[in-house]
């Protein structure tokens, strides 16, 4: 949890519980890690390229490629990150934003990583793709605020009914649903249109529209995908600098992304 150093790809072993085995990271897709591990191995299979590209850089480029292949913008990835030398589950607590965060909490956590409120709003739109487990938002659709039968009033009522159907009470903890119910496989600004309709899945999504400080940005990007794409590229480029390591005292180039050299 020290930034863009591929520490999240390290596997746990007998003496170390790694970052990816922290509860907040359990949903990270195993096939995503496998893709990075294989791409790095493919680079290293070429003798003239061996030990020159870090896992952290491969991960950043794979992220760019997923966004672009899903219909989003493409962009040059800044390169030269080294791979970190530490990965512990114990380091994760308090470092990740939580789905029940309000705008102040979101803004301050991103600010602690050198990212602006505008960056935070742009990066939240990553939820235009991907899945969430029912447990992460169940409090919004069942007994909201501890009141029996209540639902979060900021949620669209039709959407509540759909969510309750996909995530019945006491549903299996493995069940996950699309975060963007409209265009789940396209990287687009539908995320912001959803927020305008009360269809933000997490409190941390919906507050971006419901808080008057972030709403003008949400409304602007909901209506203008070009402006959103530019803001997203600027923000993810800044995100890619968080905790990047370039000194050999802090990092190296791993041979196998899942294991320290
Ligand atoms: C703004 C604060 C954020 C909060 C509170 C948050 C929270 C969450 C939660 C709770 C999930 C569901 C995990 C699960 O149940 O499986 C999730 C999924 C996801 N988040 Fe975020 N997130 C935030 C920002 C971001 C950012 C900045 C990015 C990337 C730039 C991002 C990318 C994703 C992706 C791609 C998934 C789907 C993973 C999958 O499909 O396997 N999120 N997020
Ligand atoms: Ca989408």
From TrEMBL:
Disulfide bonds join 55-257, 134-167. Binds 1 heme b (iron(II)-protoporphyrin IX) group per subunit. Binds 2 calcium ions per subunit. GO terms for biological process: hydrogen peroxide catabolic process; response to oxidative stress. Ca(2+) 2 binds at residues 128, 180, 183, 188. Heme b binds at residue 127. Residues 1-261 form the Plant heme peroxidase family profile domain. Its cofactor is heme b; Ca(2+). Keywords: Calcium, Disulfide bond, Heme, Hydrogen peroxide, Iron, Metal-binding, Oxidoreductase, Peroxidase, Pyrrolidone carboxylic acid. Substrate binds at residue 97. It comes from the Eukaryota. It catalyses: 2 a phenolic donor + H2O2 = 2 a phenolic radical donor + 2 H2O. Ca(2+) 1 binds at residues 3, 5, 7, 19. InterPro entries: Haem_peroxidase (IPR002016), Haem_peroxidase_sf (IPR010255), Peroxidase_pln (IPR000823), Peroxidases_heam-ligand_BS (IPR019793), Secretory_peroxidase (IPR033905). Pfam families: peroxidase. GO terms for molecular function: heme binding; lactoperoxidase activity; metal ion binding. PANTHER family: PEROXIDASE (PTHR31517:SF3), PTHR31517. Belongs to the peroxidase family. Ascorbate peroxidase subfamily. This is Plant heme peroxidase family profile domain-containing protein. It comes from Vanilla planifolia (Vanilla).
């Amino acid at each position: 949890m020290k930034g863009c150093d591929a520490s999240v790809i390290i596997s746990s072993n007998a003496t170390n519980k790694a970052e990816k085995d922290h509860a907040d990271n359990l949903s990270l897709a195993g096939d995503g890690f496998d893709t990075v591990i294989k791409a790095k191995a493919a680079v290293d299979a070429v003798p003239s390229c061996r030990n020159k590209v870090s896992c952290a850089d491969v991960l950043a480029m794979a992220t760019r490629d997923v966004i672009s292949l899903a219909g989003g913008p493409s962009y040059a990835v800044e390169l030269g990150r080294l791979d970190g030398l530490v990965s512990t589950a114990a380091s994760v607590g308090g470092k990740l934003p939580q789905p029940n965060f309000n705008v102040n909490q979101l803004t301050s956590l991103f600010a602690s990583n050198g990212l602006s409120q505008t960056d935070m709003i742009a990066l939240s739109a990553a939820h235009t793709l991907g899945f969430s487990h029912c447990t992460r938002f169940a409090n919004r659709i069942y007994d909201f605020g501890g009141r029996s039968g209540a639902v979060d009033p900021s949620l669209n009522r039709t959407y509540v009914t759909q969510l309750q159907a996909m995530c019945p009470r006491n549903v299996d903890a493995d069940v996950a649903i699309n975060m963007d119910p409209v265009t789940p496989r396209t990287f687009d600004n539908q995320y912001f249109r959803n927020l305008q309709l009360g269809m933000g899945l997490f409190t941390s999504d919906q507050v971006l529209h419901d808080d008057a400080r972030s709403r003008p940005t949400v409304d602007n990007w909901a209506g203008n995908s070009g402006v959103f794409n530019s803001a997203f590229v600027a923000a993810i480029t800044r995100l890619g600098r968080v905790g990047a390591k370039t000194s050999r005292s802090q990092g190296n180039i791993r041979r196998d992304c899942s294991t320290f050299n």
